[in-house]
Specification:
Low-confidence stretches: 347-351
Protein name: GGDEF domain-containing protein
Domain GGDEF: 202-336
InterPro entries: DGC-Regulatory_Protein, GGDEF_dom, HNOB_dom_associated_sf, Nucleotide_cyclase, Rev_trsase/Diguanyl_cyclase
Helix content: 25-40%
Oligomer: single chain
Largest sheet: 6 strands, antiparallel
Order of helices and strands: HEEHHEHEEEHHHEHHEEHEEEHE
Number of helices: 11
Distance between the termini: 97 Å
Pfam families: GGDEF
Strand order of the largest sheet: 2-1-6-5-4-3
């Protein structure tokens, strides 16, 4: 097999680094540096050109005679193998040798095929980790790579901005649904969650809890002490409830507790008793002692044929009122007869 002259190869690799040099039999004797980056099995020296490249248009058999017949025409090619990368090419025969010295260029009777990725350059660059250094300086692919880099940079900047905007939106929404003093959910969040539970027909328990003697703490020890008590109350209630439950501060010293999928009245009574017991433990603040208690009223969604948020909230308030009227520091579950004579009760509507 005759090889190509080093001077010719160096010039060829600089001007068109995606080249293949063929000898007269159609065997590959040289592959340009960019083509070699496609992998050792892509262009193996000594193999036939037609074994490594499928000629899709024009439809020819891939022999050297057929290739020479289409010299100077655009060839539509595809790599054989797993990548199946599309290529464009043009073949030019090397000058016939004259005498023993040859032409001083490629192999006698051989040819050069100049290749490019064409419109598949984006996929090729990604698949084979190519850079602008892998193409001739005058190749339009360089401009495409610059455009790709600019587009990538713009997309990354856009994604970064979108992430910041999403983060700001999430933070704003979180702030809108959070009580800033205690870190609990607020009234807005509680109403939204309750509406979701009612609309989805998911069963739950609702407890309205109000602190007893909290006003006395504020009046005698100041608002700093009152804020401390509220934060401690929030901490205790979160610690005593499940992750799937929701604790919300819906007023100055009023709280809503929403227990997902809880329909056992005894469990609700036990939770309320434990919370009231813990909240009656004196709280220290700046060398002073804060004493409060709590009253609670509760309802179960399963007790209503057609539960509505308005009706359940009203009944939980009525039960809370009854707990306070019966001595405070206690929990009462709603019962229908609590409506009788209660100033908070509106006329009952059919469920």
């Amino acid at each position: 097999m005759h090889g190509a002259e080093p001077e010719f190869i160096g010039l060829l690799d600089m001007l068109c680094p995606m080249n293949v040099v063929l000898e007269a039999t159609g065997h590959i004797v040289h592959a340009g540096p960019t083509l070699r980056k496609l992998g050792p099995d892509v262009v193996a020296l000594g193999t036939r050109f037609s074994e490594r490249f499928e000629i899709r248009r024009p439809r020819i058999d891939g022999s050297m005679d057929a290739l020479r017949a289409h010299a100077g025409e655009k060839l539509h090619l595809q790599l054989r193998g797993p990548t199946r990368t599309d290529l464009k090419g043009v073949l030019m025969p090397l000058p016939e040798t004259d005498g023993a010295q040859g032409s001083g260029m490629g192999p006698p009777g051989g040819a050069v095929v100049n290749l490019s990725f064409g419109i598949s350059v984006v996929e090729a660059v990604r698949a084979f980790n190519l850079t602008s250094a892998d193409f001739a300086a005058t190749d339009l692919t360089i401009e495409m790579l610059y455009l790709m880099e600019a587009k990538t940079a713009a997309m990354e900047a856009s994604q970064t901005l979108n992430l910041r905007l999403q983060g700001a939106m999430i933070a704003a929404e979180e702030k809108a649904y959070t009580d800033q003093l205690t870190g609990l959910k607020n009234r807005r969040a509680a109403d939204y969650l309750l509406e979701q539970l009612v609309d989805s027909e998911q069963e739950f328990a609702l407890m309205h809890l109000d602190l007893d003697f909290f006003k006395a703490v504020n009046d005698t020890m100041g608002h700093a002490a009152g804020d401390h008590v509220l934060r401690e109350v929030a901490r205790i209630m979160v610690a005593e409830t499940r992750n799937e439950d929701t604790v919300a501060r819906v007023g100055g010293d009023e709280f809503l507790l929403i227990f997902a999928r809880l329909t056992d009245p005894q469990r609700v009574r036990d939770i309320a008793a434990r919370l009231i017991s813990l909240l009656e433990v004196p709280m220290a603040f700046n060398g002073q002692t804060c004493r409060i208690s709590a009253s609670a009223g509760s309802v179960l969604s399963c007790d209503y044929a057609y539960p509505t948020l308005t009706r359940m909230m009203e009944d939980a308030d009525i039960a809370l009122y009854a707990a306070k009227e019966n001595g405070r520091g206690r929990h009462m579950a709603f019962e229908a007869d609590m409506r009788a004579g209660n100033p908070m009760a509106r006329p009952a509507t059919p469920e």
